[in-house]
Every structure is written in C-alpha cells, then in structure tokens.
Amino acid sequence: MADTALMDKLVSLCKRRGFVFQSSEIYGGLGSVWDYGPLGVALKRNVKDRWWSSMVHARDDIEGLDAAILMHPRVWEASGHVAGFTDPLVDCRQCKNRFRADDPRIKGTPGQPDAQCPVCGTRGSLTEPRMFNLMFKTFMGPVEDSASVVYLRPETAQGIYVNYLNVLQSSRQKIPFGIAQIGKAFRNEITPGNFIFRTREFEQMEMQFFVQPGTDGDWFDRWREWRMEWHRSLGLDPAKLQWHQHAGSELAHYAKAAFDIQYQFPFGWQEIEGIHNRGDFDLGRHQEFSGKKLEYFDQAENRRYLPYIVETSAGADRVTLTLLVDAYREEQVEGETRVVLGLHPGVAPIKAGVFPLVKKDGMPELATTLYHELRRELACFYDDSGAIGRRYRRMDEAGTPFGITVDGETLAARTVTIRHRDSMQQERVGLDRVEGYIKDKLGATPGS
Ligand code: ATP
Prior knowledge:
Layout lengths: L2 H15 L2 E3 L11 E3 L1 H20 L4 E4 L7 H6 L2 H4 L1 E6 L6 E3 L29 E4 L2 E4 L9 E4 L4 H6 L1 H8 L5 E10 L14 E11 L4 H18 L7 E5 L11 E9 L2 E12 L1 H10 L5 E3 L4 E3 L2 E8 H12 E6 L2 E6 L10 E5 L6 H13 L4 E3 L5 H11 L3 E5 L1 H6 L1 E6 L5 E5 L3 H9 L6
Parallel strand pairs: 3-9, 19-20, 19-21
Antiparallel strand pairs: 1-2, 4-5, 4-6, 7-8, 9-10, 10-16, 11-12, 12-13, 13-16, 14-15, 17-18, 21-22, 22-23
Adenosine-5'-triphosphate (ATP) binds next to strand 10, strand 13, strand 16 and helix 9.
C-alpha cells in the first residue's frame, strides 16, 4: 500500500468509526486541532493509563502531579522559551501565506529576488526570515496589556520543575526520585500535519527524574532501556522502533545527552519520545530567576547540591497515532477486503463484542445478561444487527480482539464461541470462564 494511501485510509477509518474527528468540523475545521471520538478517547486513555501505571503505580520512587496550564510568565523566561522557542519564518507579501524558512518547497533564498512563493508562485515576494515564537499568548484579568500576558504552556515539564520542592517535602521522597505528569501542551506549530502527529494542542506524558550529580549517566541509560521496553509492551512492531541520538547542533546547549525513540511512520522515521539528560540546567535557571534556593540536602553525603534531571517526554497523541498506524492492515478473505486494527488487547478500546447468533430462542436474553456482567469489568459492545460475519468485521475495524457469540449450544451446553480477531479462529469456552479468559489475554502479546 502506498504510504500516503495508508494515512488517507487511516484518517478515514478514524472518522468513520469514531476515533478522531477534525475540530469544529461543521465550521470547516480548525487547522491541526483534532477531537477524539468514543473509540479514540478510550484508546488514548488506555495509553495514558498504561504510562501512569508504569510510572506512578509500579514504582515507589515516582510521584504524580497535575500542574496548571497557565503559569507565571517568568517561568518561560527562566526556561528559555520566551527568548529561544522560535522558528525562522518568511512571509509572502503577495498571498500573505507564512512558511518556515527551511520549507523544502521554497525555491531560491527568501528575501532575494529569485525566491519563489510555493503557494502563489510569485518571485521576489518572500521576506527575509524572521524569528517567530511558537507559544500561544493570552491575557489574564480584565486588561489586555503587556503586563497581563500569560502563555499556554508549550510543555508540561516546567510545572514539574517549579513544584519539585513541594513534592519532595510533602511526599518525603529522597533523591533519586521522579515526578510524573500527563497534561495538555500547546504550540503554534508552523508546519503541523500528518494527522495527529504534529498538532497545535496535544497531550504530553512527561517524567522528570531527579538524581545526584555523577549518577545521571547511569540513570539516563536505565531510563532509555525502560522507555523502549514500555513502547514494545504496547505491541508495536520492534523492527519499526529505533534510537536516534542527538549530536552536534541538534543537541540543546544545556543537554548532556539526548536520544529520541523513533517509529517508522509511512512518512518516515519520526520521534515519539525524547529521553534527555538535562544536567542542572532547569533547576539552576529557576533558582536564579525565582531567587528561591532549590538545592537538596543529601543526608547520606552530608552535602547540598542541585539535582540533575533525566527527562522522559512522550506525546500521548503521537503514541496513539503510532498504535493506529502499526495496527492497520487489510487482508483478502473469501474475496472480500477485511480491514483490521490489530491493536494489543491491553490498549484496544473495546475488549470484546457480545453477539447473539440470531434474535430468537432465548439467545438475545442470554447474550444481554453476559454483556451486562462483562461490562462491569471490561469495555464491551453488544451488537445483534446483521449477519454475524458483518458484526465480526465491524469489530475488526474497531480493533476489538474478541468476539463472543451466544448460539444454540450455549443454551444446551453453557458454552460460547470466542472468535479471535487476528487469526479468525474460534474456540468454545464455558460461560462461567469467559471473563477470566479475556482478562488473561489482556496482558498477553497480540496474536497469542
Ligand atoms: P518535534 O521535533 O517532533 O517537534 P520536539 O523535539 O519539539 O518534537 P519535545 O519538545 O521533546 O518534542 O516533546 C516531547 C514529545 O512531545 C515529542 O516526542 C512528541 O511525542 C510530543 N510532541 C511535541 N510536539 C508535538 C506536537 N506539536 N504535536 C503532538 N505531539 C507533540
């Protein structure tokens, strides 16, 4: 399948089945902002839950946090975002479009007479590159003046840094320890696109791990390993995951080391998570700008220091897209195209479809009872309309790993048919074992 064709098909499936809709669609949409429908919100929530559980529930050295989106404007001066979170842009004086200066569609050098606008084709109409800040600005309070400017946060990390002492003291943690947060971030991206890959409003899952200077290299290596393992645990094709090391000018001036986890999307290898050894840059800057001491007193060592930070930063939307892209496949079955989302059962929005084979002989009643029992613990979907093959196909497209059919034998032998999405094989399972059977499979790898 051609790469653009795959993305087009995925976008269309996401709309048709209620994963993702364009924001404000009835008004023509809003550029690179997306809404999650019933299946999409469940998928993304499963991603976030798995992240939270691996960070906060499974470990006793990481605490959770939910900081506000709006923060004191000085935070963004300290972080370097006011001065440095910029992209060079050029404007076309003719058609008024704006482009990144390095947009590959631009022919010639912007600002020079030979440069050609990629949209209207005019020569010499492109301005010299100017720096453009990617933060969204708004105003706080009743007066819209420069003193009341606040920003929508472009990353969640700063909320963690400015609360590091609060969390340390209130949780009675000791270094090394971490703070994890999931929340919205906003960037006025100039070249957004590729569906929910790069959007202007998105969610981040960030964890900042505070360590003693000198131990940061070891912690960085450990976190790299753990984070790759987490992505593999989502059932992603391991051959489509790779490391990309930041080197030379790509490495931020304050970072000691940085690696991205990349996935091979139809539009190329792209970052889904960054793991950074940030040294003491962040706490050092906040200490300087706020005038508050942010040092840690290490009792075991009997000395004070500013902790170093190892950061893991992933996008919830990007991981969701990765799962969708990785899971999408088309197969020919009995002369028909079967569209399947082969999602890992642990992240699938619906775990099981429950179907009465026919609408008579007590089957709908039994199936409804089973459905109500199962849905107390598992996300399920009841469907009694159309041929059973059609109902299976609808669940295949939604990524539902199991189909449970109540048939004639159920009434006689108290067993149901469980049909597996990936292999399409069916087996009979006792009615009283159905819930346990499905729960067992949720942690297993797909296909097993
Ligand atoms: P990119 O190079 O793709 O712009 P970045 O290096 O600016 O990303 P970070 O600032 O390290 O990204 O953000 C951490 C994570 O947040 C990224 O790995 C990505 O998953 C997610 N993310 C960043 N920007 C966006 C965006 N505009 N839309 C969706 N997710 C994003």
